[in-house]
Specification:
4-stranded antiparallel sheet; about 40% strand; Immunoglobulin-like; 5-stranded antiparallel sheet; 1 helix; about 20% helix
Length: about 160
């Protein structure tokens, strides 16, 4: 009669904790399986971002590769700090198509045609960007699917 064990309350707490942990593991596993079977994975890799030029007049060439299984459309470029973009002189171009206006800078340009097929690479060029030597610049490529791919660089 002197046997001791865990109380029913503690046993219930342990069982609930184990059940929650298993449910979370199954949810992550199912998310991975759905991605594999649908085969529609958007993945853009920023291969390089190279700034050239002098103070107040920089050109940045960004080479991106589509490593996913579906085409990726870049529909906007966000640059931080925003004061580096001059609305009248900063240009945005893409080798895989054209971004029809500079509205794609620091915002989303819904008329974008910079579409990159799976396995292909392209160069996105930003001309006449302001800034000073040694300044850090963050560039985020925004896609039509709503994902953002950031790259941080320092102006020469």
């Amino acid at each position: 009669m002197n046997k001791k064990g865990i109380s029913p309350v503690i046993a219930t707490v342990i069982i609930v904790a184990v059940a929650i942990a298993i449910a979370i593991a199954v949810a992550f596993w199912m998310t991975g399986i759905v991605t594999i079977f649908t085969g529609q994975v958007e993945q853009l890799q920023v291969v390089s971002a190279t700034p050239t030029g002098t103070a107040g007049n920089y050109t940045i060439k960004i080479i991106v590769k589509n490593t996913g299984t579906t085409s990726v459309t870049v529909d906007g470029v966000f640059i931080t700090p925003q004061n580096l973009v001059n609305a009248s002189s900063t240009n945005l171009t893409c080798d895989a198509g054209t971004i029809s206006s500079n509205d794609g800078l620091n915002g989303i340009d819904t008329n974008s045609a910079c579409t990159i097929a799976p396995g292909n690479s392209t160069t996105i060029t930003i001309d006449n960007l302001g800034g000073s030597p040694g300044q850090s610049v963050e560039i985020k490529l925004h896609t039509a699917a709503g994902k953002e791919y950031p790259k941080l660089l320092v102006l020469p």
